[in-house]
Amino acid sequence: MDTGRIQSREIGEVTLAAIRKHGNPKQGELIAKYWPSMDKPKPPTGELQTTAQLGEQTYRSRCTYCHLANGQGMKKSLVNSKWVQGVDRSLIRILLQGKQGETEVMPGFGAEMDDGQIASLLTYIRRAWGNEAQPVETSAVREVRSATGDRQKPWTEEELLTFLK
Description:
globular, single chain, mainly alpha
């Protein structure tokens, strides 16, 4: 007999990740209670692990000066950042051409890094420090690079927000 209630076995990891993203402590408690095996993101394995390790090396050599080793940053944190956790196309744009802040500019790295390096770096930061976003595919970086190749200036917050919708 169908009672109309959703059973815990009917909710998958993608749905739970979307619920977790809202940061509601009560929802977190319910996830821990009814889905204890899914309460924590699974560590990367295989190819994803290799990609994340390469991304971590790139992060440590290029990003820690401003964002620090723990991702908290001197000015802008990557931990629970809407750009890191959000649509990968916005984050790719930031890394390719940079981002204009209120008083500072994050430089773009498109001229210095290939698509695979950018994908691995973004995959690392989207999975580090409690972030739970999906990996970034090299093909997505290639596609965004191709579409934005003529851009010569950093993205503004307003421009990037249009990609989150």
